[in-house]
Amino acid sequence: MEASAQKITVATTVNAPVAKVWEQFNAPEHITQWCAASEDWHAPFAENDLRPGGKFTTTMAAKDGSFSFDFGGIYSNIVAEKAIAYDMADGRSVQITFEDHGGNTTVIEVFDAEQSNPVEMQRDGWQAILDNFKKHVENN
């Protein structure tokens, strides 16, 4: 990916301590419960090797079975309960920070835009997934 790729930022503040937010963001049994941008999609499979050089894959699928794809990458940096960085298969990079506010945690994702879809669509999709994550953590 070219160094001049546009960065997109999405964020949410979860009403939960950072340890719980970190666990539910990274545990496959939780990822399959929150990783979808809308009600008609789900994540039937997730695996996560959370370490530098480790890989992750999440299958994202339409609930009606009409379409699915694997979303994944390779971790370049992990700082427990603070930061995650990874590169997607297409070379785009993602940085995620977890800000501990003593009972609340802000999750900020910054990722390289891809060229196929409008930036607004990409931002809205990633934000919807992050909003689902917030709901999942606060209800579990």
UniProtKB/TrEMBL annotation:
Family indicated by similarity: Belongs to the AHA1 family.
UniProt organism field: Dyadobacter linearis
**What domain of life?**
Bacteria
Which ranges carry the Activator of Hsp90 ATPase homologue 1/2-like C-terminal domain? 15-138
| Protein name in UniProt | Activator of Hsp90 ATPase homologue 1/2-like C-terminal domain-containing protein
Q: Where is the signal peptide?
A: none
**Pfam families, alphabetized:** AHSA1 (PF08327)
Write the lineage as a comma-separated list. Bacteria, Pseudomonadati, Bacteroidota, Cytophagia, Cytophagales
